[in-house]
Each structure stands twice: as structure tokens, then as C-alpha cells.
């Protein structure tokens, strides 16, 4: 078999590419899993720069003179990744409203009065969130493609293998010190929950569990492979030989990582890893040379259990005794199904799940608590990318695993068989765990999966060559016609990567000026000039548009500006934000509150009376379980009724009753508000909750007597 020479840059640049991939993997893990804009935006910019650097070499190599024809290997998943990227980009492109209505009939329905439907709109409910989401998942695809062409030799494959295991050991040591040392913080951030469980440098134990599953199974598989190819030691001198100790190191590291996984308390991660071990055993059972390793897997599981009991697994065992959390996650996933049914072809848009989930939310969410992710990556992909996006992900995973298993069956090298079985079992464990969590939404985990998929594919095509190991990928000769297609692809990749770098840098600069994403380090609104500067950088970001309005209202409430310019400006900017993000219930509530406040100062004339009522009703429809929205709408209706500004007393009382249904402990706040406008005891008793009814009635009677 010929070695694939393909469109590869010079070897020094290839080595630099590989070490850059590993460095980025380390940095994203240490940066809280890469979830913050300053981490994932920089990572995306570096990946885009790498593609920009390598594309000219591909272009030059395509038309190089020489007697030997050029050959190319196209790894699996390339077509799926390209189609998924096209789908994600199409979601953010402005299309005629009539076209959008054909593919997504409910999309134009989000423009309700006082908004008017525009002539063009994107398919996504939150197109800016879709573009930002690309910065998080696109590096995974780039890492996979670059890794396939960068991992050429056995030493380079070993560098990837030991780097991943080294990261796993670091997470284990840091997490155990964190949990048992009493610090309970990640770098400079004090943990707000999950005390007593290992989280490493990640924010959540479940996010760390995704990485540990993959690293644990890879290490144990490699240990089985090393042991199978090493001769049995003869005598005591054999115990000192390298052949004896070679499988010990990855095996011991695998045990340490597995114990750390137990200490995370992630039930989905622990069960998925156990099923991954079973998958590895089944693979070994299908290969005669690896069948003895099946019993060794059982032995490894016993060693892991003994070590785990030694360090203490009381809290983990306690979590397995409660199944409420699992039932709750299944309920969340079930609540997303109607969203998929409403947007089957196009989805709500990548990154738009949190924005669109409000009307479908479980009763306990959409108010004081929000669901940012569906706790089920597969369901969330279907909701955001539609059924076509889910089909691409599922078919891509099945195709890749099928091709890997077919290639694995043809190999006889025990080390390759063991390591690749571990990697395939790890990917199967991640796919299973993704049914119960959203670990693949963490940039560090996605990047690790991309790099290890490249390692798996190349290991399956690695052969001995001149006292070493080299990758021999199946390839095809590049004809003149394909040469031009490849050149066009290189130019397209260069252009796309340049735009990608610009988008990442712009997003990072805007977030530095005015943070709009949820982080573990919340910050107040910056000065108005900084928000306007950020908006000039990202005019399509509705959160920045709303931030200008919110800051204007903040300055007015601090009595630093007059009501007329500030409230009018806030109304204008909130309305502009809703045109860009019409499914955002929070922005609708802020817009309604601005209109209501403007009416107090006789702004807007009669038009604002109707707009305020319409805006509150829209906010209630998008956030039906939010007591703050219901309370604000009730206050406006009662005040508007008293001032003859379009409010309804009956509707106000209904909303007060709804507020108490959502949060019964707000009864004192609700009664104080109601007593400002209603003195009818029977009407007030009708809205009281069943909980604390006696105390509420005593409080009501005292208030009425004083009145």
C-alpha cells in the first residue's frame, strides 16, 4: 500500500500543527473547559489562523511540477461536517419571508404586534447565537481534519496518547486535592455547588466525566494491547524488563482515571464507562489474539472498585440511591419534543435553545431558573438543527464507527487493536452519556473528541516502516479535473478561515467591552460608551442592543438623565433588539416595563398604552412560568386601570393569582401590590394560595383594618 502524500504541508509545519493542537487542548481544559468567550474565541481564532496558514501550502502543492502524480486521502466525516456547516450557516442567512415561511411556518409568527414582520429574516430564532455557537463546535471539526494529516508517525501518535493521559492525571490530581484538601475552588473561582465531588478544572463534574470516560478506556485498551504483544517474563529478571513494565504504566493510569471518574459522582459517566468496558470486551472477544484480555478487563474493573472503596465512595453511592435527577432529565428531554415538532426541518437555530425553550419549559423553569441546555445532546441537536441536522450527526457517527470497526477487524497488531478498541469504546460511551447530559457542548471536550477521532483513524492505518511506524492512509490519484476542484476548495477554506478569524476576534473584543454571555464571573453593565463601542463591533448582537436600552434606563433610574430622552431611547433600542431576537421573553418584559414607565411620564401618547399591554402578553406567552413577568404585568394592568391608561383590573387580578400559583411564597408582595388598587376582601381572598393561607388571611385582615 502506498503512503498517502496528499495535500500535506512540509513536515516541520505539520509537526508545528500537531503541537499546536495539543497545546490548545491543554489550554482549553485548564481554562474552565473553554466555556468563556475569552477562551473559546481565542481557540477559534488560532484554529482559523492555522487553516489560513496551511491553505496556501495546499494550493502550491496542488500545482507543483513533478513526475509523480499527487494523491489525496479524504477522511470519513468530512462530507457530514461540511453539510452540517452549510446547514448552520444557512440558518443565519437573511432570506425572503415567504421562503422562510415555507420551510419554517412558525418562524414569521414570532413577529407579533407591536412588531411588524420584516421582508427578510433568517431561519434561526437567534442568528447571532448561531454564529457564536460556530466558534465552539467548528474547532472540533478543524482539529479532526488537521489531526488526520498531522499525525504521521508512531511517535506523533504517542505524543497525542500521552498528552491526553497526562491531562487526565492532572485533572485527577487537581480534583482530588480540590475535594479532599478543603479548597473547593477552581483556580480563583469558589465552587457554588457539587461540594465534595471531583470537578478538576471544569465547572461541573459531568463535564469532566466526559473527558475521563474517553481517557480511561483509551488507557485501559492500550494496556491490554501492550500486555498482549509483550512476551511473558521468565524468571525474576524478566520482571525488570521493559516488556513487563510497558503495559503497567497505561494500566495504572487508567485505574487512577477510573477512580477519579467514580469520585466525580457522575452517574451517567460511571454507567457509560462501564458499558464502554463491556463494548471493549465484546471487541476483544471477536478477535482471537485479544480474547484473553476479556478476563483482564474484569480484573481491571475489580481493581478500580477496590481503589474506589479505599478512597471513599459514600457520596457517589448516595447519588445512585436517588433516581429523581434521572427522571427529571428525561422530563426535560420529553418537553423538548414539541419544539422539534414545531420546527422539524430547520430547527430553532444553533445556539438558540435557551431562547426558544420558554414556551415549552417545565413548570419549574423559565422563571427564577432557566434551562440553558437540554441535558441531552442528541435531543438538543434535533431542536436546534432540525431533523436533517440530527440525521447528519447520527449517520456520521454510525458511519465513522462502522468504518473504524471494519478497519480494526483487519488489523493484527495487539497494540493497535487494544488502543483502538479503547478509543472506539470511549466514543460509544460518550454517545450513550450524551443522552443524559451536554458534555459535548463544552469546547474542551469537543476538541478532545476531534483530536482522538483523528488518532483512532490514523492508528488503524499505521504500519511498520523503516524501524518505525508510519501512517498509510487509503488514497486516490488526483486528476487534472480534481486538481482544480481541490484548488477551489483550498481558496474557499482560506477565505472561510479568514472570515472565521475576524468573527472570533470581533466577538472577543465586543465581549471584553460589554459581556453579554453567562459566565461564572458576572459583571455589571459597563459605561454606555463602552456598550456603544461594542455594538459598533457587533451590530447584529441583540444582547448589546438591549444593553444600550438597559443602561439608558439605569442612568434614568439613578436620576442622572431626564426621562424624555432616556426612556425614548430605551424604547427604540429594546424594539430594535426584539426585531433581531423576537423569541426572547426577557427582552419583551424589559420592553413592556419601559413602555409602562414611559406612560407615567406621559410619553408615547395613546400608542404606548396598547403596546405595553401587547408586550406584556407576549412576554407571558414566551415565559409562561416566570412569576416576575406575571407580577410586572399585573402591576401594569392594575395601575393602568386606575389611571385610565389601558389596564384591566380583572386581568391584573388573574395575573396576581398566576404569580402565586407559580411562587406561593410571594403572597406578601402580591397582597401589598393588590391592596394599592383593590379593597374588596372577597376578591383578594380568591387569589390567596393554599399554602400559608392562614397567615396570608391574618396579614390581609390587618392591612384592611389599618386601611
Automatic annotation (TrEMBL):
Domain (O-antigen ligase-related) ranges: 254-392
GO molecular function: ligase activity
Pfam families on file: Wzy_C (PF04932)
Topology in membrane: Multi-pass membrane protein
Main location class: membrane
Residues of the signal peptide: none
Cellular compartments annotated: Membrane
Native organism: Desulfomicrobium apsheronum
Keyword terms: Ligase, Membrane, Transmembrane, Transmembrane helix
UniProt xrefs under InterPro entries: O-antigen_ligase-rel_domated (IPR007016), TPR-like_helical_dom_sf (IPR011990), WaaL-like (IPR051533)
Protein's name according to its UniProt entry: O-Antigen ligase
Parts of the chain that traverse the membrane: 43-60, 81-103, 134-151, 158-177, 244-263, 269-286, 293-313, 385-408, 415-436, 442-460, 485-504
GO cellular component, one term: membrane
Amino acid at each position: 500500500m502506498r503512503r498517502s502524500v496528499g495535500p500535506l504541508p512540509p513536515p516541520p509545519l505539520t509537526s508545528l500543527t500537531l503541537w499546536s493542537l495539543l497545546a490548545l487542548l491543554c489550554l482549553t481544559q485548564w481554562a474552565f473547559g473553554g466555556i468563556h468567550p475569552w477562551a473559546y474565541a481565542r481557540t477559534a481564532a488560532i484554529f482559523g489562523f492555522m487553516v489560513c496558514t496551511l491553505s496556501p501550502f495546499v494550493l502550491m502543492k496542488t500545482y507543483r511540477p513533478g513526475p509523480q502524480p499527487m494523491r489525496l486521502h479524504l477522511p470519513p466525516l468530512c462530507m457530514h461536517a461540511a453539510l452540517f456547516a452549510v446547514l448552520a450557516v444557512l440558518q443565519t442567512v437573511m432570506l425572503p419571508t415567504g421562503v422562510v415561511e415555507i420551510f419554517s411556518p412558525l418562524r414569521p409568527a414570532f413577529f407579533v404586534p407591536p412588531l411588524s414582520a420584516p421582508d427578510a429574516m433568517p431561519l434561526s430564532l437567534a442568528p447571532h447565537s448561531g454564529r457564536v455557537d460556530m466558534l465552539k463546535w467548528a474547532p472540533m471539526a478543524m482539529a479532526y481534519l488537521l489531526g488526520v494529516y498531522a499525525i504521521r508517525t508512531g511517535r506523533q501518535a504517542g505524543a497525542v496518547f500521552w498528552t491526553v493521559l497526562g491531562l487526565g492525571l492532572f485533572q485527577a490530581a487537581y480534583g482530588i486535592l480540590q475535594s479532599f484538601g478543603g479548597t473547593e475552588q477552581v483556580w480563583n473561582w469558589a465552587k457554588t455547588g457539587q461540594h465534595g465531588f471531583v470537578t478538576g478544572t471544569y465547572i461541573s463534574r459531568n463535564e469532566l466525566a466526559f473527558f475521563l470516560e474517553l481517557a480511561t478506556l483509551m488507557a485501559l485498551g492500550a494496556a491490554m494491547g501492550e500486555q498482549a504483544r509483550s512476551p511473558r517474563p521468565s524468571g525474576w529478571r524478566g520482571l525488570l524488563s521493559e516488556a513487563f513494565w510497558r503495559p503497567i504504566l497505561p494500566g495504572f493510569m487508567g485505574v487512577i482515571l477510573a477512580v477519579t471518574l467514580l469520585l466525580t459522582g457522575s452517574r451517567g459517566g460511571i454507567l457509560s464507562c462501564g458499558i464502554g468496558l463491556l463494548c471493549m470486551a465484546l471487541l476483544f472477544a471477536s478477535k482471537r489474539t485479544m480474547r484473553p484480555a476479556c478476563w483482564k478487563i474484569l480484573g481491571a474493573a475489580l481493581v478500580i472498585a477496590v481503589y474506589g472503596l479505599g478512597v471513599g465512595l459514600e457520596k457517589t453511592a448516595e447519588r445512585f440511591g436517588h433516581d429523581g435527577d434521572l427522571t427529571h432529565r428525561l422530563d426535560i428531554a420529553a418537553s423538548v419534543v414539541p419544539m422539534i415538532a414545531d420546527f422539524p426541518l430547520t430547527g430553532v437555530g444553533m445556539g438558540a435553545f435557551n431562547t426558544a425553550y420558554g414556551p415549552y419549559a417545565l413548570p419549574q423553569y423559565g422563571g427564577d431558573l432557566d434551562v440553558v441546555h437540554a441535558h441531552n445532546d442528541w435531543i438538543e441537536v434535533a431542536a436546534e438543527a432540525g431533523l436533517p441536522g440530527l440525521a447528519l450527526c447520527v449517520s456520521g457517527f454510525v458511519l465513522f464507527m462502522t468504518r473504524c470497526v471494519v478497519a480494526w477487524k483487519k488489523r493484527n497488531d495487539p497494540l493497535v487493536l487494544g488502543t483502538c478498541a479503547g478509543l472506539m469504546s470511549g466514543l460509544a460511551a460518550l454517545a450513550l452519556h450524551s443522552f443524559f447530559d451536554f458534555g459535548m457542548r463544552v469546547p474542551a471536550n469537543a476538541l478532545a473528541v476531534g483530536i482522538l477521532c483523528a488518532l483512532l483513524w490514523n492508528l488503524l492505518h499505521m504500519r511498520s516502516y523503516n524501524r518505525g511506524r508510519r501512517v498509510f492512509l487509503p488514497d486516490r490519484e488526483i486528476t487534472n479535473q480534481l486538481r482544480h476542484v481541490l484548488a477551489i476548495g483550498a481558496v474557499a477554506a482560506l477565505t472561510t478561515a479568514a472570515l472565521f478569524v475576524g468573527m472570533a476576534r470581533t466577538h472577543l473584543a465586543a465581549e471584553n467591552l460589554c459581556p453579554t454571555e453567562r459566565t461564572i464571573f458576572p459583571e455589571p453593565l459597563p459605561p454606555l460608551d463602552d456598550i456603544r463601542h461594542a455594538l459598533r463591533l457587533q451590530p447584529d448582537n441583540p444582547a448589546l442592543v438591549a444593553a444600550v436600552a438597559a443602561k439608558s434606563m439605569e442612568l434614568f433610574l439613578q436620576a442622572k438623565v431626564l426621562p424624555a430622552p432616556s426612556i425614548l431611547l430605551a424604547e427604540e433600542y429594546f424594539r430594535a433588539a426584539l426585531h433581531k431576537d423576537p423569541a426572547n421573553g426577557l427582552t419583551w418584559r424589559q420592553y413592556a416595563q419601559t413602555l409602562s414607565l414611559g406612560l407615567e411620564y406621559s410619553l408615547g401618547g395613546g400608542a404606548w398604552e396598547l403596546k405595553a399591554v401587547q408586550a406584556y402578553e407576549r412576554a407571558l406567552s414566551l415565559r409562561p412560568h416566570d412569576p416576575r413577568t406575571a407580577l410586572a404585568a399585573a402591576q401594569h394592568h392594575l395601575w393602568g386601570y386606575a389611571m385610565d391608561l389601558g389596564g384591566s383590573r380583572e386581568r391584573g387580578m388573574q395575573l396576581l393569582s398566576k404569580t402565586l400559583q407559580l411562587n406561593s411564597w410571594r403572597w406578601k408582595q402580591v397582597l401589598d401590590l393588590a391592596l394599592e388598587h383593590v379593597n374588596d376582601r372577597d376578591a383578594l381572598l380568591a387569589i390567596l394560595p393554599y399554602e400559608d393561607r392562614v397567615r396570608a388571611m391574618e396579614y390581609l385582615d390587618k392591612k384592611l383594618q389599618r386601611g
